[in-house]
């Protein structure tokens, strides 16, 4: 899954089309500096007062924004595993933008490339050719990028001007969320509700890029190293069933069997029952038995 800067890392020996290294832009330097400062700010937990209020803010902020990443950025924008109204689509985009994982178009574009080139040199964040720490964090700072337009595979999303706005101004929603935490809990609210919660969502998401391609079980032959991991599934509301997901990437359900807990899918079923979303894509019996799902969104929108 996931996320921060806008380039695919590629070693020097890769095909010439990928060997285009460009200098950092000013905002990329700023983004990197702020990212490091966010991690250093974790030390403030030893300074600010702790209360049940700010702890609840941290847990609630994690839950809402992890759900926004899994249900919105991942299962809706990247894979179009269900349909919804234009208004709720915008809500998903704005909530996802508060997670500090860039905008919905960038996120979906990067993730579709991950599936198209999974665990190869053209995968934006694979631990297979470059190692665990690169897949978890290093790829965010890498300046190698592919030559083609990085948004060419999200034309289905970029036709919405409001999504383009959120994608280009994601910082507005991050700052707004920080001020909300300040209004609710003061300085302690910012530290726990914003800094701790945001970084927890970020690193839990990154664990799917890194650990879910290294540690776990494999039910299906997918052509990559995706794994099912129950612990990661709990942390990420169902994303840890990663081998299932790579087997049938456009289904809304990632925990295929009753014992595979998938909290995001349960909430999507509830929203479908309420009429907020519809056309929820489910894995068929053939898919569960091992047949690959056709209609890969990474192909049809490229």
Question: Summarize this, please?
Answer:
With 302 residues, the chain is mainly α. It has a domain at 51-105 and 149-300. The protein has helices spanning 26-40, 52-78, 86-97, 104-116, 127-130, 132-136, 155-158, 161-168, 170-210, 230-235, 242-247, 263-274, 285-289, 297-300; strands at 20-21, 83-84, 144-145, 277-278.
Give a description of the structure.
Residues 1-24 have low confidence and may be disordered. The protein is globular and about 55 Å long. The protein has helices at residues 26-40, 52-78, 86-97, 104-116, 127-130, 132-136, 155-158, 161-168, 170-210, 230-235, 242-247, 263-274, 285-289, 297-300, and strands spanning 20-21, 83-84, 144-145, 277-278. It has a domain at 51-105 and 149-300. The strands form two sheets. A two-stranded antiparallel sheet has the order 1-3. Strands 2-4 form a two-stranded antiparallel ribbon. 54% of the residues lie in helices and 3% in strands. It is built from 14 helices and four strands.
Mean pLDDT: 87
Helix-strand topology string: EHHEHHHHEHHHHHHEHH
Secondary-structure-derived class: mainly alpha
General shape: globular
* DSSP helix fraction: 40-55%
Measured between the Cα atoms of the first and last residue, the distance is 19 Å
Unreliable residue stretches:
1-24
* Major β-sheet annotation: 2 strands, antiparallel
Q: Count all strands and give the number.
A: 4
Which strand-content bin applies to the residues? under 5%
Cα Rg: 19 Å
User: Number of helical runs?
Assistant: 14
Strand order across the largest sheet: 1-3
């Amino acid at each position: 899954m996931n996320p921060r800067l806008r380039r695919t890392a590629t070693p020097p020996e890769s095909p010439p089309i990928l060997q285009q290294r460009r200098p950092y832009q000013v905002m990329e330097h700023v983004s990197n500096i702020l990212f490091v400062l966010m991690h250093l700010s974790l030390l403030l937990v030893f300074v600010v007062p702790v209360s049940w209020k700010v702890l609840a803010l941290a847990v609630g902020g994690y839950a809402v924004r992890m759900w926004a990443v899994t249900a919105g950025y991942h299962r809706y924008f990247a894979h179009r595993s269900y349909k919804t109204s234009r208004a709720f689509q915008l809500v998903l985009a704005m909530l996802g933008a508060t997670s500090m994982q860039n905008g919905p178009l960038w996120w979906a574009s990067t993730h579709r490339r991950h599936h198209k080139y999974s665990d190869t040199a053209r995968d934006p964040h694979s631990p297979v050719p470059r190692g665990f720490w690169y897949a978890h964090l290093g790829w965010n700072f890498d300046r190698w990028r592919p030559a083609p337009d990085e948004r060419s595979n999200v034309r289905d999303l970029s036709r919405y001007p409001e999504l383009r706005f959120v994608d280009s101004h994601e910082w507005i929603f991050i700052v707004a969320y920080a001020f909300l935490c300040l209004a609710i809990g003061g300085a302690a609210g910012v530290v726990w509700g914003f800094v701790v919660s945001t970084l927890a969502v970020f690193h839990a998401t990154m664990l799917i890029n890194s650990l879910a391609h290294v540690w776990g079980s494999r039910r299906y032959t997918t052509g990559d190293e995706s794994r099912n991991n129950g612990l990661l599934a709990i942390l990420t509301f169902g994303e840890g069933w990663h081998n299932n997901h790579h087997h049938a990437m456009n289904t809304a359900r990632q925990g295929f069997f009753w014992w595979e807990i998938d909290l995001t899918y349960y909430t999507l079923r509830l929203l479908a029952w309420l009429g907020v979303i519809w056309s929820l894509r489910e894995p068929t019996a053939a898919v569960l038995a091992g047949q690959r799902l056709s209609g890969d969104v990474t192909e049809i929108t490229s």
